[in-house]
Amino acid sequence: MKNKTSTLFLITALLALLMGVAFGLLAALQYLIPEFLKDLLPFHKMRPFHVTTVITWIVLCATGSIYFYLSQVEKFKLFSDKLMKTHFIVFLITGIGIYLSYFFGKMEGREYLAFTPILTIPILFGWLLFGINYFKTMLKQVKNWPVYYWMWGTGIVFMMIHLTEAHLWLMPYFREHVIKDLTVQWKSYGSFVGSWNMLVYGISIYVMAKIKGDHAIGRGKLAFFFYFLGLTNLMFGWAHHTYIVPTLPWIRYVAYGVSMTEWIVLGYMIYEWRRSLTKTEKDSYPLAYRFLVTTDFWIFVNLIIALLFSIPAINFFTHGTHITVAHSMGTTIGINTSILFASLLFIVSRISAFTKKEETSIKRSLLGFNISLFLFFMALLVAGARRSHWMYAGNDTSFSNMQESLFWVYMAFFVFGITLTTSMVFIGLPILRKLINGLRL
Amino acid sequence: MTEKTKYNIAIISILLILFVVYNGFVYTSKENANPVILTEQALHGQRLWQENNCWSCHQTYGLGGYLGPDLTNVYSAKNKGPQYIKAFLNSGVKTMPKFNFSESEKEALVSYLKFVDSTGYYPNYHAIFKPSGWIELEYKNEK
């Protein structure tokens, strides 16, 4: 393989996924056994390890996939291979810095970005390098961009905007005002997710187009409508996180108007694509195809929940409960991770074919992945419903009594977490082996 | 540049202009009718809240982790308040880490939570539900 940096991004991403789910399991265990690892790695340190590592999986896998497609599939000449290598090294060193920051308790940041804020500078620098490389490559070599190129370009630019916005609290003007601060913080997080969705959903359309061998998929009116809808959501659709925060009503009205309609379009696109595929096309990339079909199921499930709690009267009861966690797990695992696995399987199929045995094992693991995720998701919904009931109808018992009453639900959550992790390991390891072998070619 | 590209850039430009104007309003408008501004001591408490990842387990306005309770109104809640908060801080009960806050740090955290408390209610028990699905929140200090 000529250019190995994109593969290094993908290998690092997979390692991050495996580590991230392991941290998640350890954190879940602390719900059941409060004293577990309390002195060595208490929950307030474990959670940032888990969250940062799984976000790293999404970001690195999307980045590596895009570099791979451009350089290895489309055979574009990258503006600079050196910039790509520097990008990887900057992210790798920053990642180590973040882990050290967590390990030594230097966590001056906030939820999702808990590391010491100075480390945001190299992260932004890495995105800047990616942006320069991307736009310099694409503007020179492609005239009429299909939608996924627009989506990737948009995702890169908005990643930088929203990472910066997430640190506005460093300015006294923001952090002195509690409500404004909270509003801007959650505005940036909502849009941050919107930005990586641009990268990941762009990947899903790209892989669909490649499997079908039909580039019209990324050029139709529906695809561009989906893109602009997603962009509108990214810019203005964040405030469902803050319906309950007593900010000015107009901010909440805008959020109410802009809901998560983009999923309807993505779900429809995958459905139509699946319907139009011939058997030969399905068989050309059988594993990637299966993972994309899985995505459609999770889009459907999450769409229902998201649309429901974009209604303020429903959000009122679900906000601040595990129902929100169920939604974020459904989207990051069910949608993002399924798409990224599809991308990896598509990439790996271009390096070398899986044996029949490996293929069967991945197919079985995908089934295990979906069943486990569904049960995991349901356990979170039950925990959320119980917490909501406690908040609004049963507040005569203490918080710790309410938590204790959820012991078996947390146990189910932990057990399904183990089976989900096992499925991901059985899917991830063969891919990892192929990628590592690919480095040697 | 193709016609389609120009058309796409035009739509993106319009969205970007709206985005800039919208951000300007969000950043500069008063967050509500009675904005609360943190004092030096409360800002110190906010810093401690972040440095010790209190948000990992606790929430304010339902935003944060779910291992511990929401603390938006812990300062003014019945049977809770400043002494209750201070007693918990270094207690190390159950999953709560055993912190080693000094008296002035405890005061700072209490001060931060006092300011958070003064910004509103969570859960907002007196919110009014509208038939359209909208809810009118009860704001603090507005009656």
TrEMBL record, chain A:
It comes from the Bacteria. Residues 201-441 form the Cytochrome oxidase subunit I profile domain. One of its GO terms (cellular component) is membrane. It holds the Pfam family COX1. Keywords: Electron transport, Membrane, Respiratory chain, Transmembrane, Transmembrane helix, Transport. One of its GO terms (molecular function) is cytochrome-c oxidase activity. The keyword GTP-binding does not apply. The keyword Transmembrane helix applies. This is Nitric-oxide reductase subunit B. The chain crosses the membrane at residues 51-70, 82-102, 114-135, 147-169, 189-209, 221-238, 250-271, 291-313, 333-353, 365-385, 405-432. One of its GO terms (biological process) is aerobic respiration. SUPFAM superfamilies: Cytochrome c oxidase subunit I-like. Signal peptide: none annotated.
UniProtKB/TrEMBL annotation, chain B:
InterPro entries: Cyt_c-like_dom (IPR009056), Cyt_c-like_dom_sf (IPR036909). It comes from Xanthomarina gelatinilytica. GO terms for molecular function: electron transfer activity; heme binding; metal ion binding. The keyword Secreted does not apply. This is Cytochrome c. The chain crosses the membrane at residues 7-27. Pfam families: Cytochrome_CBB3. It comes from the Bacteria.
